[in-house]
Amino acid sequence: MKNEALPVTPEVTLELAWLEHGRGLQPPAYQTTSAAGMDLQAAITEPIVLPPMQRRAIPCGFILAIPPGFEAQIRPRSGLAMKHGVSVPNAPGTIDADYRGELQVILINFGSEPFEITRGMRIAQMVISPVVQARWQIQASPAELAPTQRGTGGFGSTGH
């Protein structure tokens, strides 16, 4: 069976403006036709060593314009997490549509060895998702909320 690209519904166009230290890098890119996330690269001029249990914001070298109604979610790369213990501590991080600063990725080294980050290294992935904003309808008491089969059953109440 041939690997087909995911249907994109709705399709969204993102605008990207390079900052000086990001010039020469590739824009975020899907690595396969069915990938959900685009890889982000480190836009650094000198290598950064991330010691165990330390975290740091790593610049990506561009400013992104996301249309209203969408967000960018920043997630760890599974290979970095598995092989080196490097992750995104606030995963998924959210980039709101109205943010116009440099995209940066917070990385943490959960591993036991220092981890070196170099220019152009793929450090995280970015997923573009639609956003729904909620309205509140305040009820006078919990009894006015619609009942459910689960009710007040909390942690572990639905089984293993």
Here the CATH topology equals Deoxyuridine 5'-Triphosphate Nucleotidohydrolase, Chain A
Residue share in helix: under 10%
What is the terminal separation in angstroms? 36 Å
Q: Low-confidence spans: pLDDT under 50, at least 5 residues? A: none
**Average pLDDT, to the nearest integer?**
92
- Percent of residues in β-strands: 25-35%
Structure summarized in a few sentences:
By secondary structure, this protein is mainly β. It has one helix at residues 78-84, and strands at residues 15-18, 29-30, 38-41, 48-50, 55-65, 70-75, 86-87, 93-95, 102-109, 115-117, 122-130.
Task: Explain this structure.
The protein has 160 residues and is mainly beta. The protein has one domain: Deoxyuridine 5'-Triphosphate Nucleotidohydrolase, Chain A, CATH 2.70.40.10. The chain is 4% helix and 34% strand. It contains one helix and eleven strands, in the order ββββββαβββββ. The strands form three sheets. It has a five-stranded antiparallel beta sheet with strand order 2-3-11-6-8, with no helix packed on it. The longest helix has 7 residues.
List the helices and strands and how they pair.
Layout: E1 15-18, E2 29-30, E3 38-41, E4 48-50, E5 55-65, E6 70-75, H1 78-84, E7 86-87, E8 93-95, E9 102-109, E10 115-117, E11 122-130
Antiparallel strand pairs: 1-5, 2-3, 3-11, 4-10, 5-9, 6-8, 6-11, 7-9
Please name the defining characteristics of this protein.
mainly beta; Deoxyuridine 5'-Triphosphate Nucleotidohydrolase, Chain A; five-stranded antiparallel β-sheet; four-stranded antiparallel β-sheet
